């Protein structure tokens, strides 16, 4: 069967003209108008793949090949899904409003189709989750199964390890074993392998090595290499019972982790033809983004649903770049991209042949000089069959600004990188009035803090994205230390951080005296034996000593004052521990002046870190079974292991700071200025050593992996002697080393192609600890060679190689520092001078006049406030939206952005009124009537956005009127449904009162109103609330928003209002995009 052929199709250029967009390039046009059959698109870095994918969808819709609601787009992150979805929907709206449709279909049917339908754009995991929710009972998986976060998975696995009462021969600590259990469980799920299969293969491997007879001249004992390999196999076998127990506990708790979700979805698609038929009927065109990062389970799922030789080919377009396949360490298989053409064959007459492949090789991001470097780095990969040609720059691309250096040591390198970046930052700021976007990309997290310190020393605002995550950021670390001290008085390390940190700066002698005091309090009598001293110190709590420091003579005068002050603050916080967790954390932030400290740092990064942590607190409080301070501190300790310190999952490029992050985190992003330091041996690329399954117990044997045919072959068998076994294993390992080095090269390619204009690359000879010099890696050497050959860029310095007799100057160089660290450092003199000037000015005030005319300053304050009020209409203030908005605040934003801005900039307590109390009482009555749970939040009180207020005496009348309404005889399918949705980067939160299901299939969300019916002029703004509820319910049920309706029911008037023109999700996003200055 041949593919669908469209008669007189609209050409991509004509379509772009009709939509008022730039015409696509010839290679983009080829992809957009490619045949209606499976196709692979190899898209280089910055080649406009998202734009091309969106244009492909619009071309299919405009030519009547598929309706918008039958388009499925899948990608990896919520951010990417949001961007692709928004771009497709924006172009479909343009298509609906264009005159092109009138020519293509005068009847108007095509326009109706375009207006009525919306494409489905999800992450791969979200799509798998939807399949499970709809078909999981076939396996069986219950519909209400809970999806575990990484931290929740860790908590379950950690309980398994901590309570394990069987033998486990290892010297690893429980957190490390927990990570091992999770890694191995994830590998099994990713490759669809059972515990029994893995146990059988690993046992065979051990038997082959143990039973191999000695070769001539070999010793009786196993060689060291074989001993190490055997130890890894035995430990893998020992982990398998813990993995089984982890799975059992998840089942008992009705929970799945991400690996379960994908593997179960793959099982559904592979074993149930009705699921396949249903998905192919639902979707007529599929887009698969970043296909090179898919794993085996995802490949099985997608091939079973939309590909395979047994199914009719359909228009599935996979987009990816083999040069950016950098996630092999977490289960991705780079081989999935080239195998797409055979996994998704097309028809050629009556025969099935591999799908067509196309290329997008013009970069719209990078200047030609940067592409020359990236292409040079990728050249060895192409020689080994990478499958992508060299990238080329767009016509008219400007020149790059490239600087490269090899420095004598790592400190000199940091100085050079920071100076080079600072020059470009300040020059751009002076020239354009705003700084450039800028980033430093490192291979190792350990290199983040030192380079960030050098950047800050040059006055640059810095955001460290990572550094072990949010928990290692200074503001957050101080906040967490305080929480730990409040939860556990024996948390000495947390108390020590507070006392010696930037705020209190307690001297070493005072800290030592405090420890001695703690020891006295824990054991008043002197111990009889020296060995009891250590035990006494462990039992001592610094907090006890802070509360009762003893005689002031023990400490310095200033030290004693500071100890007393921190004690008073902690005591005050302990008296307020009955607050909710989010309130308590906010209280700690204010009390410890962390909000002030964060604002004192250049840029907004400090405040951003505290806001991100507040998001973590709120999410935990909403999802944890017991959201107490103790459980939250345990959660944080867990998260430090499970998620590398709550590392933000999606990074946003920000223009007001230099971002420091890992290269892996930078994929998909771009900055005007990019620095890539430490291109040295054993760092970037990393040390040439194998981390294959032979020595890593948490990795699956190559033969069991889904991509085994692309991995080095293991050539050993029963009956081989020990020499033959060892040679086979060494050859196998060597193949894995080569694969890992190829991934490092792809990672370097990704780093270089992040730059839009300026690129700074560097390396060094000496690090701070090694006795042997490192020197430039092959990557830096290749970059230097290209710059010398082409004459572009600047080779600032190329330090000569040290001789073998030279010693590391940094090892013998003793660095002096002051402790505790002075947070003002070089600014102290200037700040101190300013303080003295202000104090002197204040002391010259005429005290007599002040006491007689305005003793408390009230008149002065009043004059200032009146003057401010008089000027309020003549000035404009920018008030940033918070990262979270309630639905009521969204309504206020649509109704009167200026008033909301004023409320946000100067928040005041809500005035107590009978309205809220009546709303609460009526709401509780309705919940009892519907047999629902009474869960009320202050911000979601019924009637919080109502117009008008009735007295409390109306409560019985409200009950009577409700019983007369159309809703009294109906039963809701859900009441009090909380939701949280991401809209334009803002988390929108709310609670739906009730949801009903109509006989004809659609849903209706109803919001009970206890106030008066508002005038019609206010309904458009109030209807924003219903639009938000409608969007949220559609997302919760995974149904098109058109299948959900929404209404207000004004109880006292017994009137239901169903606005006919509710905003769609794009309309809600537009409200946030079009925020006026307020």
From TrEMBL:
MF terms in GO: 3'-5' DNA helicase activity; ATP binding; DNA binding; exonuclease activity
Keywords assigned by UniProt, alphabetized: ATP-binding, DNA damage, DNA repair, DNA-binding, Exonuclease, Helicase, Hydrolase, Isomerase, Nuclease, Nucleotide-binding
Region (Disordered): 799-825
Reaction catalyzed: ATP + H2O = ADP + phosphate + H(+); Couples ATP hydrolysis with the unwinding of duplex DNA by translocating in the 3'-5' direction
GO CC list: cytosol; DNA helicase complex
UvrD-like helicase ATP-binding domain location: 22-367
Binding site for ATP: 43-50
Keyword Hydrolase among UniProt keywords: yes
Matching InterPro entries: DExx_box_DNA_helicase_dom_sf, DNA_helicase_UvrD-like_C, DNA_helicase_UvrD/REP, P-loop_NTPase, PDDEXK-like_dom_sf, PDDEXK_AddAB-type, Restrct_endonuc-II-like, UvrD-like_ATP-bd
E.C. code: 5.6.2.4
Similarity-based family: Belongs to the helicase family. UvrD subfamily.
The protein's name in its UniProt record: DNA 3'-5' helicase
């Amino acid at each position: 069967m041949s593919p669908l052929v469209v008669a007189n199709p609209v050409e991509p250029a004509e379509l772009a003209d009709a939509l008022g967009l730039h015409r696509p390039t010839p290679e983009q046009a080829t992809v957009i108008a490619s045949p209606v059959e499976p196709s692979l698109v190899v898209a280089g870095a910055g080649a406009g793949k998202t734009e091309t994918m969106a244009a492909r969808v619009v071309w299919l819709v405009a030519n009547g090949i598929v309706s918008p609601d039958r388009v499925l787009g899948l990608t990896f992150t919520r951010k990417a899904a949001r961007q692709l979805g928004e771009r497709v929907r924006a172009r479909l709206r343009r298509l609906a409003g264009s005159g092109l449709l009138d020519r293509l279909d005068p009847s108007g049917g095509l326009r109706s189709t375009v207006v009525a339908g919306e494409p489905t754009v999800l992450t791969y995991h979200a799509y798998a989750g939807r399949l499970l929710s709809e078909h999981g009972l076939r396996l069986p998986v219950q519909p209400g199964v809970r999806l575990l976060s990484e931290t929740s998975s860790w908590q379950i696995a950690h309980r398994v390890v901590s309570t394990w009462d069987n033998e486990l021969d290892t010297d690893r600590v429980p957190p490390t074993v927990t990570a091992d259990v999770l890694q191995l469980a994830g590998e099994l799920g990713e490759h669809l392998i059972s515990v029994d299969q893995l146990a059988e293969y690993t046992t065979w491997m051990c038997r082959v090595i143990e039973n191999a007879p000695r070769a001539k001249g070999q010793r009786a004992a196993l060689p060291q290499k074989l001993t190490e390999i055997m130890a890894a196999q035995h430990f893998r076998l020992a982990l398998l019972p813990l993995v089984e127990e982890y799975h059992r506990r998840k089942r008992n708790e009705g929970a799945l982790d991400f690996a379960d979700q994908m593997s179960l979805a793959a099982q559904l698609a592979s074993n149930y033809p009705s699921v396949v038929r249903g998905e192919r009927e639902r979707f007529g065109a599929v887009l698969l983004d970043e296909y090179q990062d898919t794993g085996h389970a995802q490949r099985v799922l997608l091939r079973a649903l939309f590909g395979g030789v047994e199914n009719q080919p359909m228009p599935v377009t996979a987009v990816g770049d083999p040069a950016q396949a950098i996630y092999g360490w977490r289960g991705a298989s780079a081989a999935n991209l080239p195998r797409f053409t055979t996994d998704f064959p097309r028809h050629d007459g009556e025969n099935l042949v591999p799908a067509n492949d196309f290329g997008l090789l013009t970069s719209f991001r990078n200047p030609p000089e940067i592409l020359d470097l990236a292409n040079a780095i990728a050249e060895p990969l192409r020689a080994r069959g990478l499958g992508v040609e060299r990238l080329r720059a767009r016509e008219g691309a400007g020149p790059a600004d490239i600087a490269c250096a090899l420095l004598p040591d790592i400190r000199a390198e940091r100085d050079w990188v920071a100076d080079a970046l600072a020059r470009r930052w300040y020059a751009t700021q002076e020239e354009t009035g705003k700084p450039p976007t800028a980033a430093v990309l490192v291979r190792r997290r350990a290199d983040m803090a030192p380079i960030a310190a050098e950047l800050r020393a040059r006055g640059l605002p810095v955001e460290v994205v990572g550094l072990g995550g949010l928990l290692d950021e200074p503001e957050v670390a101080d906040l967490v230390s305080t929480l730990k001290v409040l939860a556990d008085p024996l948390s000495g390390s947390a108390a020590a951080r507070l006392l010696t940190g930037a705020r209190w700066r307690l001297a070493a002698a005072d800290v030592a005296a405090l420890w001695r005091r703690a020891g006295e309090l824990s054991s008043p009598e002197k111990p009889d034996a020296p060995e009891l001293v250590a035990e006494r110190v462990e039992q001592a709590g610094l907090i006890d000593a802070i509360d009762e420091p003893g005689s002031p003579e023990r400490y310095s005068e200033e030290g004693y004052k500071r100890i007393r002050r921190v004690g008073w603050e902690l005591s005050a916080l302990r008296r307020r521990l009955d607050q909710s967790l989010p309130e308590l954390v906010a209280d700690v932030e204010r009390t410890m002046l962390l909000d002030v400290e964060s604002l004192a740092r250049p840029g907004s990064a400090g405040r951003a870190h505290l806001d991100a942590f507040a998001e973590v607190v709120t999410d935990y409080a909403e999802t944890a079974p017991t959201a107490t301070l103790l459980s939250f501190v345990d959660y944080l300790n867990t998260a430090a292991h499970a998620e590398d310190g709550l590392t933000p999952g999606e990074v946003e490029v920000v223009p007001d700071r230099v971002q420091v992050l890992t290269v892996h985190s930078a994929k998909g992003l771009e900055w005007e200025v990019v620095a890539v330091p430490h291109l040295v041996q054993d760092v970037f690329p990393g040390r040439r050593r194998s981390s294959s399954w032979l020595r890593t117990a948490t990795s699956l044997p190559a033969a069991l992996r889904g991509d085994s045919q692309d991995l080095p072959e293991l050539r050993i068998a029963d009956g081989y002697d020990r020499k033959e076994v060892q040679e086979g294993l060494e050859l196998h390992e060597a193949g894995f080393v080569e694969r890992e080095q190829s991934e490092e090269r792809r990672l370097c390619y990704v780093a270089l192609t992040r730059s839009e204009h300026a690129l700074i690359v560097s390396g060094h000879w000496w690090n701070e600890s090694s006795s042997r010099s490192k020197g430039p890696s092959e990557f830096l050497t290749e970059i230097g060679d290209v710059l010398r050959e082409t004459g572009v860029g600047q080779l600032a310095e190329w330090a000569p190689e040290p001789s073998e007799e030279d010693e590391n100057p940094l090892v013998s160089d003793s660095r002096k520092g002051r402790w505790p660290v002075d947070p003002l450092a070089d600014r102290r003199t200037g700040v101190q001078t300013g303080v003295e000037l202000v104090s002197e000015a204040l002391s010259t005030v005429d005290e007599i006049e002040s006491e007689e005319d305005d003793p408390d300053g009230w008149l002065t304050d009043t004059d200032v406030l009146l003057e401010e009020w008089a000027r309020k209409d003549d000035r404009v203030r920018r008030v940033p939206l918070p990262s979270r908005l309630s639905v009521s605040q969204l309504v206020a934003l649509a109704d009167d952005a200026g008033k909301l801005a004023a409320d946000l900039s100067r928040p005041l307590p809500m005035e107590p009124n009978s309205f809220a109390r009546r709303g609460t009482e009526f709401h509780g009555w309705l919940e009892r009537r519907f047999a629902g749970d009474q869960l009320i939040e202050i911000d979601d009180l019924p009637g919080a956005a109502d117009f008008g207020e009735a007295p409390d005496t109306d409560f019985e009348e409200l009950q009577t009127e409700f019983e007369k309404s159309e809703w009294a005889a109906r039963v809701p399918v859900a009441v009090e449904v909380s939701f949280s949705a991401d809209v334009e980067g803002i988390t929108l939160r709310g609670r739906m009162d009730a949801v009903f299901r109509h006989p004809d299939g659609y849903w209706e969300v109803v919001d009970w109103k206890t106030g008066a019916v508002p005038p019609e002029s206010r309904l458009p703004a109030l209807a924003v609330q219903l639009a938000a509820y409608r969007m949220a319910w559609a997302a919760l049920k995974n149904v098109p928003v058109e299948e959900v309706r929404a209404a207000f029911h004004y109880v006292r008037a017994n009137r239901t209002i169903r606005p006919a023109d509710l905003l769609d999700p794009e309309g809600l996003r537009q409200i946030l995009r079009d925020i006026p200055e307020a």
